[in-house]
Design goal:
The complex is a heterodimer.
Chain A (H helix, E strand, L loop, with lengths): L4 E2 L2 E8 L4 H14 L5 E5 L8 E8 L13 E4 L5 H7 L5 E5 L13 E5 L1 H8 L6 H17 L3 H11 L4 H21 L6 E2 L10 E4 H11 L4 E4 L6 H14 L10 E4 L3 H13 L4 E5 L1 H6 L1 H10 L3 E7 L16 H5 L10 E2 L4 H18 L2 E7 H5 L1 E4 L17 H7 L30 E3 L13 H16 L9 E3 L6 E6 L3 H10 L4 E6 L1 E2 L3 H8 L3 E6 L5 H9 L7 E5 L8 H13 L2
Parallel strand pairs in A: 1-8, 2-5, 5-6, 6-7, 10-11, 10-12, 12-13, 13-15, 14-15, 19-20, 19-22, 22-23
Antiparallel strand pairs in A: 2-4, 3-4, 9-16, 14-21, 18-20
Helix pairs in contact in A: 1-4, 1-5, 3-4, 4-6, 5-6, 7-8, 7-13, 9-11, 17-20
Chain B lengths: L2 H4 L25 H16 L6 E5 L3 H4 L10 E3 L5 H11 L4 E7 H6 L2 H10 L3 E7 L2 E2 L5 E2 L22 H7 L4 E6 L3 H13 L3 E7 L15 H7 E3 L1 E6 L14 E5 L5 E6 L9 H13 L3 E8 L6 H5 L11 H4 L3 H10 L3
Parallel strand pairs in B: 1-2, 1-3, 3-4, 4-8, 7-8, 9-13
Antiparallel strand pairs in B: 5-6, 7-13, 10-12, 11-12
Helix pairs in contact in B: 2-8, 4-6, 7-10
The chains are: A alpha/beta, B alpha/beta.
The structure holds thiamine diphosphate, iron/sulfur cluster and magnesium ion.
């Protein structure tokens, strides 16, 4: 056996969807966390409930990198429907754990280290309860992996205990099943490969969480009271998280709920309800993905023009159309930035990790209230649905900013109030809220059709243009409160890289390994902060890396900064897998080689 | 101030009828919708509606414009086409102490907005929902809407190529807790029905036939003044007695059915058909079907059920509106977040 490879390889587990393998995969991932290893977990699942193949990849690296690895060293091929292809794709020299009961021809294992385990027979023999067998069967491979590659028993046990809420009977059956694998491997499999997990120090202080949970909790901390949604992958678990956290944090002892959740009939209704609730003074939000965003179009424009706060979570998936519902992209940028007909502009907050999902979620409500407009948090499937080893969530550093809500005192001061009057010169008018006072000077008629400063119907060309100009100015002002970009590097390299969102992990990893000295600016919001223009101005070449075909962020940058347009280059990947550092490195070398 | 102005009648909240008015109407002269606006004003004045306790909600269409022409002191929201129900639901959820007064058209509700209408009915918020039904899209110049009857030709003589939706039957079938139909020209019936709708604790749906004089009032149209006059039937005359008025009227035994309403008001139904009972679902459904088959238009209070829980009750909303809850109530503590982080370290 060659020199051992410790904590620097990828394990790929192929199983059929809906067979309970998710629990087993999670146990492996979490047991590694328990050993202090920051593994990267990517669940590649099909758009189907049961039967189609899923691949769960667990990557460990010295740097604790969280991006997807392209290489896979160890394959667990446990899906009778995919072993053929799985093995064909697996690089020679690698390790394969297969199911003896599938009777895969010997010849297929030439050039591999093979561990064959009769999973079905073991399950039949040792798992007496036929009802529980299909579920528990998967625990056997957890045991095999633990024994073969060195996941400590104590860590597996601690994980099972935590996952089954410390219920002894549940722990017992699961651990026993796991033990079947451990014992089989001990007695029958001789270690022939170099790969080994070993205790590490990569997880100190960190938490395990997915982006959707973090967004959901952020919404609750942001004071959201009305949440409406229509289920769609990959945004559904965000809605479910909000519901769970509402129950937990917002239910009074007598059962009173300081929240409302409405499962809307579609996304048109979901956004309509958010706008209705926002109009009536509540903090309201909805979560969706591309198809839902498309449906929300008309009402986005309504919210923009009638000036109503709203928060929308867009957990992006692969478009156009139904696309690949269970794969990831960053391809809703142009759609969201200018959503709806007419001249519009929507602020976007773009988190790159779970801690930012939490932070940007609560901050989005402040932006929406302050600027009285729909605001979108742009997450994606990779960020939202995969579990990440993340920095802990940080408590909000400031109180709610409810923006310019008219109080009786303020009304007395203003004398002549007009709903859409720019009193302070920042384009943001004062807003009154129904039901807050009996003074009828407060009331006004909200409409999406032409209106003047006093919210009175108007078809005047001058009034209309003035209003649109004020709105544009108002939205431009959001840069003052939107998250600023983050700069990595000294800022004086020749090449400037721009990226955003979940691809940050692959980009940072690629840059850390690359000799090319480049500065890296991570965008965290749209519209762009002034420092983005300065960054571009300060570099000879600027490359924007993103996960869509059209180079949508590059387009937005060219539009916002036309003077720099010619120097903005694009690297794009849009196949739907989470971005890998290897791809970034290759593409970057290729792009930079061009003159 | 002149003698007559000071002597102007005020209601129980000290407002005059003019106080319930709005901007000048921009409807065509003679449009049925204006009559409905007048009926709303009259009902609100009689009831002593406090303008800060309701919100006007509408979609898009001639009908949906009318909330600008009544209750001018009240907040209003003119939403997108067919989407008023969702905006109203949002507002209601944020502050269920504010009752939405929804005004829509047959296009806005039965065509583009049928989905949202259907689901609004399922939710049963406390809300008044008036459809000003003229069988056409008035605002886009007279195309058929989804309530146009098959036998009802356009001005140019074309017939609809699809069958009609009867919104009352649909609402009833979906479990609507208050279903009524009336005619924009019949204030005697319409005003008390609107008043009863205000007093109902749940979704009160009113289908009000409202002729479009410009595009759909020719004699052959089934939504015309003349057609309505010839085909209308009702099984009772309605009188509304608000909770704050103590009027005892003597009726012959068995001739009147009194429907007590949520706020203590009463709707007296003087029976013209001894058997009809609007609390009887089967009878209501049958009556709608039967009159339709006979080419009649059934008006009056068709159905009422006070037992359906409101959406606020179902959602267990707090006494303080969600919109008024403060940061202390809404933002969980720092300790809670510490605990959350700790729980995600295993
Ligand atoms: C999304 C959308 N599609 C089409 C229109 C055009 N439009 C405006 S009003 C209307 C029909 C209104 O009909 P109805 O609700 O019956 O109102 P009426 O004018 O008859 O009172 C249509 C189709 C629109 N405003 N929005
Ligand atoms: S077009 Fe018809 S519905 Fe519209 S205002 Fe004129 S008469 Fe009324
Ligand atoms: Mg109409």
């Amino acid at each position: 056996m060659s020199k051992s490879v410790v904590n620097d390889f990828t394990l790929n587990i192929a199983t059929p969807n809906g067979t309970g393998s998710q629990t087993s995969n999670t146990i492996i991932f979490r047991a590694l966390y328990h050993m202090g290893i920051a593994a990267a977990a990517k669940n590649l699942f099909p758009s189907n409930i049961q039967g189609l193949p899923t691949w769960f990849s667990i990557r460990v690296s010295a740097g604790g990198w969280q991006a997807r690895a392209e290489q896979c060293e160890i394959l667990l091929t446990l899906n009778p429907a995919t072993w053929n292809q799985d093995i064909a794709n697996h690089p020679r020299g690698g390790v394969i754990v297969d199911n003896t009961d599938y009777k895969i021809p010997e010849s297929r294992f030439e050039g591999y280290v093979r561990y064959s385990v009769p999973f079905e027979s073991l399950a039949l023999k040792h798992l007496r309860d036929a009802k529980l067998r299909p579920k528990l069967k998967n625990l056997i491979y957890v045991g095999v992996v633990a024994q073969l590659f060195g996941i400590e028993e104590e860590s597996v046990q601690a994980t099972i205990r935590a996952m089954f809420a410390n219920k002894q009977e549940l722990f017992d059956v699961n651990w026993e099943a796991c033990k079947i694998g451990i014992d089989y491997a001990k007695e029958n499999l001789k270690k022939q490969d170099p790969y080994r997990f070993a205790r590490a120090n990569q997880t100190a202080g960190k938490i395990l969480i997915d982006g959707n949970d973090a967004c959901g909790l952020g919404a609750v901390y942001g004071g959201c009271t009305a949440f409406t949604w229509y289920p769609i992958t990959p945004a559904s678990s965000l809605g479910e998280a909000v519901i769970e956290f509402f129950r937990k944090y917002r239910t009074e002892k007598d059962g009173t709920r300081n929240y409302a959740v409405v499962q809307a009939e579609d996304e048109l209704a979901a956004i309509g309800m958010v706008l209705g609730a926002g109009w009536a003074g509540a903090r309201a939000a909805t979560s969706t993905s591309g198809p839902g965003i498309s449906l929300m179009g008309e009402n986005f424009g309504y919210g923009y023009y009638a000036e109503i706060p709203a928060v929308v979570f867009d957990v992006q998936r692969v478009g156009p159309s139904t696309g690949l519902p269970t794969r990831t992209q960053q391809s809703d940028l142009l759609l969201v930035a200018f959503h709806s007909h007419g001249d519009t502009s929507f602020p976007m907050l773009i988190p790159a990790n779970a801690a930012e999902c939490f932070e940007f979620a609560w901050r989005a409500f402040d932006v929406a209230d302050r600027y009285q407009t729909p605001v979108v948090v742009m997450s994606d499937l990779d960020l939202g649905m995969n579990t990440w080893v993340s920095e802990p969530l940080v408590y909000p550093d400031r109180p709610f900013d409810r923006g310019k809500i008219l109080t009786p005192e303020k009304l007395a001061q203003l004398e002549k109030w007009g709903r859409y009057k720019d009193v302070d010169g920042d384009g943001i008018p004062y807003r009154s809220i129904a039901g807050r006072t009996q003074d009828s000077r407060f009331s006004y008629f909200t409409r999406g059709s032409g209106h003047d400063e006093n919210a009175v119907y108007s078809e005047s060309d001058q009034v209309y243009a003035r209003n649109l100009d004020r709105l544009a100015r108002k939205i431009r002002g959001t840069v003052q409160v939107l998250p600023e970009p983050v700069l990595a590097g000294k800022g004086n390299a020749e090449v400037g890289i721009i990226a955003f969102g979940s691809t940050d992990h692959a980009v940072r990893e690629a840059l850390a390994a690359n000799e090319t000295a480049a500065d890296y600016l991570r965008l965290r919001a749209y519209p762009f902060h002034d420092s983005v223009g300065e960054f571009i101005a300060g570099h000879d070449r600027v490359v924007v890396i993103e996960q869509n075909q059209q180079g949508q962020m590059a387009q937005l940058l060219r539009m916002a900064l036309p003077e720099h347009a010619p120097k903005i280059e694009s690297i794009t990947y849009y196949g739907g897998l989470p971005l890998s550092a290897a791809f970034v490195a290759r593409a970057l070398n290729g792009t930079l080689a061009k003159v | 101030m002149s003698e007559s102005a000071t002597a102007q009648k005020t209601n129980r909240v000290g407002l005059t009828k003019e106080d319930y008015g709005g901007a000048p109407s921009t409807m065509c002269k003679g449009c049925g919708h204006d009559r409905i606006s007048e009926a709303v004003i009259q009902a609100a004045f009689h009831l002593g509606v406090e303008s800060h306790r309701i919100v006007k909600m509408s979609g898009i269409g001639c009908s949906s414009k009318t909330p600008a022409y009544f209750l001018g002191r009240t907040f209003g929201l003119n939403a997108t086409h067919g989407r008023m129900p969702s905006f109203a639901t949002g507002s209601y959820v944020a502050n269920s102490a504010l009752m939405p007064l929804g005004v829509s058209g047959d296009g806005d509700t039965a065509s583009i907005g049928i989905g949202q209408f259907v689901h609004l009915v399922r939710r049963n918020p406390k809300m008044v929902y008036i459809v000003e039904n003229n069988g056409v899209y008035g605002l886009t110049k007279g195309q058929f809407s989804a309530t146009a009857d098959r036998e009802s030709p356009s001005k140019r003589g074309a017939l609809p190529s699809e069958g009609p939706i009867d919104l009352c039957s649909l609402a009833l079938d979906l479990g609507c807790s208050f279903v009524a139909r009336s005619f924009s020209g019949d204030k005697k019936q319409l005003v008390p029905l609107i008043e009863a709708a205000f007093s109902h604790n749940g979704l009160a749906f009113l289908d009000v036939i409202s002729p479009c004089v410009t595009f759909n009032n020719h004699d052959e149209s089934t939504k015309s003044y003349t057609y309505h006059k010839d085909h209308e039937v009702h099984y009772h005359d309605v009188t509304f007695v608000p909770h704050f008025e103590h009027i005892d009227v003597e009726y012959e035994p068995g001739s009147v059915q009194t429907v007590p309403l949520h706020d203590g008001s009463k709707l007296h139904l003087k029976k013209l058909d001894a058997a009809y009972d609007p609390t009887d679902f089967q009878r209501a459904a049958h009556a709608l079907r039967e009159t339709r088959a006979n080419r009649q238009i059934l008006t009056g209070l068709i159905y009422i059920n006070k037992g359906t829980p409101t959406f606020a009750e179902t959602l267990k909303l707090p006494a303080t509106p969600l919109a008024s809850l403060d940061e202390k109530t809404l933002r969980p503590s720092r300790e809670a977040l510490d605990k959350f982080n700790a729980a995600h370290r295993v």
